[in-house]
Design a protein that fits this description.
Layout lengths: L1 H5 L3 H14 L4 H13 L3 H14 L3 H17 L3 H13 L4 H17 L2 E12 L10 E3 L6 E3 L9 E13 L8 E15 L1 H6 L10 E14 L5 E14 L2 E16 L4 E14 L7 E14 L5 E14 L6 E11 L10 E11 L9 E7 L1
Antiparallel strand pairs: 1-4, 2-3, 4-5, 5-6, 6-7, 7-8, 8-9, 9-10, 10-11, 11-12, 12-13, 13-14
């Protein structure tokens, strides 16, 4: 039956599987072959049904692998590529040999490259000493005043546990192999906290729900080559979002960006970008802002295999706002290195960033304020 289907005689192979299944209806191998035959004949719904029955009847890794592969192939032919990817992951789990695993990975890459949908789900759970982004001190000083102001316990750093969840989906309108690419993105992220017993004792008025953060956004991006040489690429993107904090509306925001990547060689490139952000605060209209940023970057492949990547970027930005604590000038210089191949199965990266924020006016410091931050 298998050889007949492989030789291209799907109808004859189907008759052979009918005879095998009449003898024993739960013959997983016969069901797998039947699914392949039905797929070759374009009877995709029946092919999926046969593969699903084969999966139920399978009792060895080899038969489970075959059933999962047959289901993935039938689903892919039916245009259901996301479901096919899930079945190929299942097939990889039951691959009976290295060759079978390589086959599942190869097919997964093929289906993924033709699937316009991409879904990313991320999760986080960790203890933290400052779940509310509070002050690490219990008092503050104001320039020119001879006394200190006590900071409310709810605004001081509170310990506890952080839980985060993010779901992002994107749809690619153009085939992945094309140089032009248009992608729509949709995302949701949220973070909740649980206060420790010591935090509850220190700040009895604080509630964990006060620090819940939620964000919802949608965006569209486009990338295309500029000119006939292919050395330059244009990038356009727009994102619209809304977020909540403590169960109340926090802000609406719109972000637009445009950039150009210029290839200097096979291993080096320059990038130029401009972006604008408009943020409308729902909790405090005075803190609404408009931000304009300009950036330039350089990236180069290094190392003996030219797989490691070194990048340098400079960005300057101006934020306009009615609030003295939001209106500022910014400058950031960053250097990043990423190892191309894992070392002992571990991906390696390192970065250094120096940033400056200058506030011309401040309610708390006479003559304005300057923040200098170094991160490694």
């Amino acid at each position: 039956a298998f050889q007949t289907v492989q030789a291209g005689y799907a109808q004859d192979g189907l008759r052979l599987t009918d005879a095998l299944l009449a003898r024993y209806p739960k013959d997983a191998t016969a069901l797998i072959i039947r699914s392949q035959a039905l797929r070759s004949l374009g009877r995709l719904a029946e092919a999926q049904k046969a593969a699903k029955t084969a999966w139920s009847a399978a009792n060895t890794d080899k038969s489970r692998f075959g059933a999962a592969m047959a289901m993935a192939q039938a689903l892919s032919s039916d245009g259901r590529r996301t479901s096919a990817q899930l079945w190929l992951r299942r097939a990889a789990e039951y691959a009976p040999s290295g060759r079978a695993l390589a086959m599942a990975k190869r097919d997964f890459g093929y289906v993924k490259s033709r699937n316009p949908w991409t879904l990313d789900i991320t999760g986080q759970a960790s203890p933290a000493s400052n779940v509310n982004n509070g002050s690490r001190r219990d008092y503050m000083t104001v320039s020119g005043l001879p006394f200190e102001f006590e900071i409310a316990p709810e605004s001081q750093a509170l310990s506890g546990f952080e839980l985060g969840l993010g779901v992002a989906a994107s749809y690619r309108f153009t085939p992945k192999a094309e140089q032009r690419e248009t992608v729509a993105r949709f995302g949701f992220s949220g973070q909740a906290v649980a206060l420790s017993a010591s935090a509850k004792a220190a700040a009895p008025l604080a509630k964990a729900s006060d620090y819940t953060y939620l964000a919802l956004e949608a965006g569209l991006s486009h990338r295309r080559p500029l000119g006939a040489s292919g050395a330059d690429t244009l990038r356009l993107a727009g994102t619209l979002g809304h977020n909540w904090y403590g169960g109340a509306d926090l802000s609406d925001y719109l972000r637009l960006s445009m950039g150009v990547d210029h290839s200097l060689s096979d291993h080096a490139a320059l990038s130029f970008g401009v972006s604008g952000d408009v943020t409308a605060r729902a909790d405090s209209a005075k803190q609404s802002s408009d931000r304009l940023a300009l950036s330039v970057g350089y990236a180069v492949a290094i190392g003996s295999s030219q797989q490691d990547r070194l990048s340098l970027q400079f960005e300057t930005a101006q934020t306009a706002s009615a609030s003295d604590e939001v209106r500022a000038r910014e400058a950031t210089l960053s250097l990043d290195w990423r190892k191309g191949a894992p070392v002992a199965g571990i991906g390696l990266a390192a970065g250094l960033e120096l940033s400056q924020q200058v506030f011309a006016d401040s309610r708390y410091v006479a003559g304005g304020r300057e923040d200098l931050t170094l991160q490694a």
